[in-house]
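#struct-help
A.M.: can someone run this one for me? Single chain, 351 residues.
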Amino acid sequence: MSRFLLVGCFLVDTLYYHVVRCDTRLVVIFIQTTTGKAVFMFNVLSDYQKKFVVFIFVSMLLSACGGGGESASTPSLWTKQVSTVVTNLNAVTKGAGSNLVAVGASGTIITSADAISWVSQISGTTNNLNGVIWNGTQFVAVGASGTILTSVDGVTWSSQISGTTDDINGISWNGSKFVAVGGVSTSTALSSVDGITWLVRTSTQPHAFRGITWTGSTFIIVGDAGTKIETSDGFSWLISNFGTTNDFNAITSNGSNKVVSVGTAGTIFSTSDTLTWSSYTPPTNLTFYGVTWDGTKFVAVGANDTIFVSTDGSTWTNQLSVTAGNTLRGVTWNGSKLVAVGDAGDIRTSP
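D.P.: on it. Structure tokens below:
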């Protein structure tokens, strides 16, 4: 029986090289990073290639030990967890402790206490659920056709009257008020102090809202065609635009001095003051659907299992997932693990 040993990983141009020893042979696995797609091609190394590999790893060791030079960071692998559903999962949030709630298509709700074992719950709706949040005492999930559900434990859910039939795509909490946003061809915004009674803001914005976050001082809403809105209460709006026609799907804040928003075609914008926004050369041409802050870094997820991380919101590094193919649509931090969810019930965790 053959014996396999992972020798190491390194980056050259846009390829991650995973070097594996199989008995007496070295095998290299090439993984494309510009598209995020993991295409595995196996080749037995020639003597010249072996020398090249040795040179690369010696350089990496010297750099790690303070010997000078620069080397690419080794990708952090994510673990694929067993899911209880095959429907698309659109969002995930942390509740009390390390508890998690993920929501998705056809009213799907699943919960977990450890990010590894998941249990399906009864939502009472077949509408798609697009977003979910925990405010310290209850979960609020939002979705298609004005759907709003509330739960104190993630298990038993109650339907609330939203006052709109528009799709609701995202929701945030500022410590005293929920603001939910959505729309189809035009925008919709709602607010509530308790998650039960909702007030709808009449909007004339021509583009749907996709994501919302609380920065610590204001809500920032993002949406289609570069839409960007600031509001302290969900009703008085400061309307602007990112200066691009790209759609923005998600936004998050580190709670102090940095906000990051992501969207189509690898779009990433960030700000330190909510006034001046900087755009960055896309690390990928694939669409980002979710972004979060885990206390030390931003994590953005998207199409084809794309996962990128950044400590400052400007320099991004590809973190390879286990396999490629599904779209990841939501990501959160539960205090000990990053958890990403996506199509076909896909669940990934790191570490």
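A.M.: thanks! Helices lie at 47-64.
D.P.: also worth noting: The radius of gyration is 22 Å.
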